[in-house]
Amino acid sequence: MSSKMSEPVTPPEGGDAPETPNLDFAGTTPYEDYVQADVLTHLQHLRSDDPGEMVFLVTTQVMELWFTVIVHEWETASRALREDRVPVAVDALKRSVRELEALNASWTPLAQLTPAQFNSYRSALGEGSGFQSAMYRRMEFLLGDKSASMLVPHRGAPRVHAELEKALGEPSLYDEVLALLARRGHAVPASVLQRDLTRKYEPSPEVEAVWAELYAGDQNGELVRLGEALTDVGELVWRWRNDHLVATRRAMGAKAGTGGSAGVAWLEKRATKNVFPELWTARSHV
Ligand code: HEM
After folding, report:
1. Could you report the per-residue pLDDT of 43-83, keeping only the tens digit for each?
2. Region Disordered: which residues (predicted)?
3. Which of 31, 62, 74, 159 has its CA 20 to 30 A from that of 168?
């Protein structure tokens, strides 16, 4: 798009025509300055001649952007919880629910790939795999699925590594929720509150009992509304994993993944994990 007009712009016919947008800018457009669309739309470096590779790459990039937005919302929610501002946290979680829906809808163009279509560019991916997505890993860390070994692939990328390392040592979104419940007088055990934050969160029967008690009470209470916003998040993350699993099964059956895993068998195991586990198991006791 040219930013300088050589000819003066002719106004539209008729005196009462609505004003047309400005066409004349000295440098790049203010839109470009803000959105950086020129950068964004030139990041598609294809590795094969297959016409189907473009949508595979762009869908992956779109998902990375959604991961970035969702991490931002969950970090906002975590901070708000730490400061006892529950409505601010619930607002951020609710925004993330709409964003997770948009993220999940972006599976559509990849959901029905046949093995032959995927094979047309698969070898061009080399050992590249979404498993190496640092932003997805930050989402998992915020959900409580911490693991120091997940930093290893990023040793060669200092900024990414530093961000992940920081996230590994910080309380997850769920840790902040449980700390809030404890401050509100609920019996969250000290072993949970003082857990090693760099390890995966393990479900606790006492935490399950806290949620069961809350869910048996006032349905409009602040903490039940927080619990439901978290449950929506958990359900949509589980849906993303399952949509990914089914798309993978359609595109490559039981072959090994480009990232070196057993492929579908490995993803199946990952997809069975419950996000915020006690929010699901507590329902049996209400
Ligand atoms: C239909 C196309 C796709 C196939 C066949 C596929 C296949 C796989 C496989 C087999 C794995 C396991 C690790 C490995 O060995 O590579 C994996 C992991 C992963 N993929 Fe995909 N994938 C596809 C599309 C995508 C897209 C578009 C994204 C978006 C970023 C993505 C993100 C991920 C993530 C985040 C993981 C790690 C999951 C975890 O750690 O639990 N995948 N994928």
Report:
1. 999 999 999 999 999 999 999 999 999 999 999 999 999 99
2. 1-28
3. 62
